[in-house]
Amino acid sequence: MYIASFSLMTVSIGIQTGQTAGAYEVCIAFNVVELIYNILLKLQLSLETLRIHLLHENLIGYVKAFLMIIFLNLWVMKTFLVIIVLSFYCEKLNKAMGEIQNTCVYILRSNSSDAGKELCKNVQRLHRASYTKLNVCGMFYIDASFALRLIAIVGNYALVILQFALQ
Fold first, then answer.
1. What ranges make up the beta strands (E) of the chain?
2. TM segments (predicted)?
3. Is the pTM of this model over 0.90?
4. Of 8, 70, 107, 154, which has the fewest beta carbons less than 10 angstroms from its beta carbon?
5. CB under 8 Å to 148, separation ≥6 — which residues?
6. 64-77, pLDDT tens digit by residue?
């Protein structure tokens, strides 16, 4: 777990500083789209399996479908945990960048040396020019609310699948 957390933090720092940003953005976008697709596909398959085995009153098939739903939920929880960790570290990085800005403002207002003030001005200039939140391929931002937005998207489409399954 610590290795995964460290690697996610390294990825987010590498993305924020512009190092190989395109490769990580495409990888994250692919994983998010794949997650949504797999959740909805497996939900649809589980519902179809349940319906078939309930119509034929097959208890073994019903248990298999129930186990498939349980394993789907375990897989979804694991994948969401990875996304939550990524969101946490990206938000932590965003907060650290905000704290750096606040520290620079404090140093500029204090009686610090000219070299310290010049450094803070350069940091602020660089921050304004090149720092942005992690924006994955222009589709979405990775921040603290990303996991909630992802749950909302999956929930909306799952409701649509459930409505069609009940007809």
1. 134-136, 140-142
2. 65-89, 146-166
3. no
4. 70
5. none
6. 777 877 887 788 78
